[in-house]
Design a protein that fits this description.
The chain is an all-alpha fold and 335 residues long. The protein is 68% helix and 2% strand. The chain has a two-stranded antiparallel sheet with strand order 1-2.
Length: 335
């Protein structure tokens, strides 16, 4: 049910600041939604460009903080590796710009939506931290454990961005379960298994051939062949858990999570297919890159699923809401 728009706040400033204040939205509107979606898409996109840097051996294509000792930008004397590395750095600027735009757009109603305000600042702080970590990576010659940390932080930012997108469409206030307790527990187990799958996948990549630069031979010390199998175990468990969730959601008409489970299962099917292809074809860089981006999309989809386990409490619904809806919410909670 759409959130009831509050009455516009009276103007407290005059001149330019007053006009800016009045232009800013006083609730989640189309501008906020567009900015939040752009931020999420860019967070996923930078996972792809970061993967391209590593998979094309461009990790040391630029120095830090400049691209060369005398230039911020790649020069004609440098190879295409510098363009790829600088392109990833350039995209990080737009990721940060989108994060700032979200902060500005929700600033007027930050007191009413503290959840969105906090998440927007987490995203912005994460973008700044990632820029620093990226520079340290270059200084320390692309150490695989630091690269893994860099990637995992990116996935955390994708999750927070996805949480923002979901929460901005939900009303503030007390919340209650929208599914039976057992289903909620199963969803949380599924999310935990996804985290294990991602972690083992990152370790597998760190032990493999895609270091980020052909001159860098440092690996994380694990056997990539063994890790490929270890990585597949939680991956197949994740698929089985998601399939079980879909059967339960369809059998019990759990519309609150049905579409989110279907989306998660569809992404997993594609991810499994790509994973099998890359494992059986000597890890082609393009397939590995697609696998990395799909992992980010999986994290976003799983975050959306977890956040749909609850909804605004029936007691906070407007009095015009149908009694059938309130009764259904009460029944779901008791379940």
């Amino acid at each position: 049910m759409p959130e009831i728009a509050p009455q516009p706040a009276p103007r407290t400033r005059s001149g330019f600041l007053g006009r800016v204040h009045d232009w800013l939205p006083d609730r989640v509107d189309l501008r906020v939604r567009i900015a939040a979606w752009i931020s999420l898409v860019l967070e996923v996109a930078i996972v792809g460009t970061g993967g391209a840097v590593r998979l094309t051996d461009s990790g040391l294509g630029c120095e830090w903080p400049l691209c060369t000792p005398d230039s911020l930008f790649p020069t004609a004397a440098q190879s295409y590796h510098s363009l790829i590395e600088f392109g990833n750095r350039g995209l990080s600027f737009f990721v940060g710009l989108a994060a700032i735009a979200v902060i500005v757009l929700i600033s007027r109603f930050r007191a009413e939506r503290r959840d969105l305000w906090v998440m927007s600042w987490i995203i912005f702080a994460g973008v700044l931290a990632q820029a620093v970590v990226g520079g340290i990576l270059v200084i320390f010659q692309l150490h695989p454990n630091m690269v893994a940390f860099h990637y995992l932080v990116s996935l955390v930012l994708v999750a927070v961005s996805a949480a923002f997108v979901v929460r901005m469409g939900q009303r503030r206030g007390p919340r209650e379960r929208a599914v039976p307790k057992g289903v909620a527990i199963l969803v949380h187990i599924t999310s935990f298994v996804l985290a294990l799958t991602v972690i083992f996948g990152v370790l597998t990549t760190g032990a493999g051939p895609h270091s980020g630069d052909p001159a860098v031979t440092l690996r994380n010390g694990f056997d990539a062949t063994i890790l490929e199998h270890v990585h597949s175990w939680p991956a197949y468990a994740l698929f089985a858990l998601t399939l079980t969730l879909l059967v339960i959601a369809l059998a019990n008409s759990l519309t609150a999570i049905r579409n989110a489970v279907i989306a998660l299962l569809a992404i997993e099917l594609v991810q499994i297919a790509v994973g099998l292809y890359q494992a059986r074809n000597a890890l082609p860089p393009l397939a590995v890159g697609v696998h990395m981006v799909l992992a980010a999309i999986l994290v976003a989809a799983c975050t959306a699923l977890v956040l749909r386990l609850k909804r605004p409490a029936a007691a906070t619904w407007p009095s015009t809401a149908g009694t059938d809806d309130a009764g259904a919410a009460t029944a779901a909670t008791r379940g």
